[in-house]
Design a protein that fits this description.
Length: 392
């Protein structure tokens, strides 16, 4: 049987490298990226205790030129089943009818709106809007929501806030784009699901580094104790990942993976919004903690190696007639694919997201390539990572 395996250093070394890459990938998926599945299993078994208290909370929404969206989405927020909450909308220097729309809701007792002055250039307008919203919030807890977000349930506030108790004061929720039709939007849905698996899984492992500001709750005092965005106010992005890096610890962060806490974002172009968010994370990822950067780099490296080495071995083994080594490399590839298939689609089932089967390897392999081209393009627009005053 050993005679089947012809010794060829170019093939043997490649198979050994692929074995290491596959083992690292399986370890990452089972150790970290299965966090959503582990959490949902604990919920089903009843081993997670939730707080029965329902503390008052301020919902903060930052809006720029979204008057039509506000008029459509705000009424549903007022119908949330929660004893006491306030809605704060920050008009981020809009030039449309946003202010007129907001004035129509002024008669509601639990509604308040403020604004970011036009012409703010020396600091991130988004972070300024979030800071103003936090200062306007009358309650100790705040819950951030995207202006285009639509809660899946009228128990959204209650579901997010049940995680708040003396052990946890930062709650990470899930948000996804509503439109998932079409090839590009499916690619966006896959990347959004996978990135959520990463940051939720790492948060459960005591390594919080990112969230989505479209569904994020925390105690207001954490923001001001850490001087808010003072350390990165001139950087346009970072309102989700760098914020979490400041306020979240291994002991105060929780995630909620139930569908009642899910937020759907209705936008005209999920592809465009995803690209802009990806560009923003390019500029902030370098400020992550070393351990987080190492894990993300290791995942990206070993993922790419799995595909590149498999293609290389197909060609080399076929040309040299080393079919036994070809079988080994195929088994390694299928092992990773099987682990990935189970972990990804179990997470998708829990979050009520599309499942990925035959297209999964294609999306998984193409994303590093897509991101690579985006990084090259981002270098030409790197000056846009910072505010105008910093560049001047």
């Amino acid at each position: 049987m050993l005679d089947w395996f012809q010794f060829n250093p170019w093939i043997t070394i490649a198979v050994a490298a692929m074995l290491v890459a596959v083992l690292v990938q399986c370890w990452l998926y089972l150790r970290y990226f299965s966090g959503i599945n582990h959490q949902s299993r604990r919920v089903r078994k009843g081993t997670i205790s939730y707080s029965e208290d329902q503390p008052p909370v301020s919902i903060i929404i930052c809006a720029r030129d979204k008057g039509e969206v506000l008029a459509k989405n705000l009424p549903a927020l007022f119908d949330q089943k929660y004893p006491e909450f306030q809605i704060v909308v920050v008009n981020d220097a809009s030039s449309d009818e946003t202010e007129d729309i907001l004035q129509q809701f002024e008669r509601r007792p639990n509604f308040y709106h403020t604004f970011v002055p036009k012409g703010v250039r020396s600091i991130s307008a988004r972070k300024m809007a979030m800071t103003l919203g936090l200062k306007a919030a009358v309650y100790d807890y705040v819950l951030f929501m995207d202006v285009a977000g639509i809660p899946e349930s009228d128990a959204w506030i209650a579901t997010m806030m049940r995680n708040v108790d003396w052990r946890g004061s930062v709650v990470l929720g899930f948000a996804s784009f509503k439109d998932k039709k079409g090839f590009r939007n499916q690619l966006v849905a896959y990347d959004n699901l996978f990135s959520t698996m990463q940051w939720m899984g790492l948060a459960l492992s005591g390594k919080p580094y990112r969230a989505t500001s479209a569904n994020l709750a925390f105690k207001k005092e954490l923001f001001f104790k850490n001087n808010g965005f003072a350390s990165n106010l001139s950087l346009r992005s970072g309102d989700d990942d760098l914020l979490i890096g400041e306020i979240a610890t291994r002991n105060n962060v929780k995630i909620d993976v139930s569908t009642e806490s899910k937020v759907l974002i209705e936008t005209r172009s999920p592809w465009y919004d995803w690209k802009e968010k990806t560009f923003s994370h390019f500029s902030t990822a370098r400020q992550y903690k070393f351990g987080i950067k190492l894990l993300l780099w290791l995942e990206n490296l070993t993922r790419s190696l799995c595909y590149l080495l498999f293609l290389y071995l197909i060609v080399m083994c076929w040309l040299s007639g080393s079919y036994a080594w070809l079988l080994v490399s195929a088994l390694l590839f299928l092992t990773r694919y099987a682990v990935q298939l189970v972990v990804v689609n179990k997470s998708a089932s829990q979050l009520k997201e599309p499942h990925f089967y035959l297209l999964l390897p294609f999306f998984d392999a193409s994303l590093p390539v897509v991101r690579g081209f985006m990084r090259l393009f981002n270098r030409s627009r790197r000056h846009n990572n910072y505010t105008w005053e910093v560049l001047r």
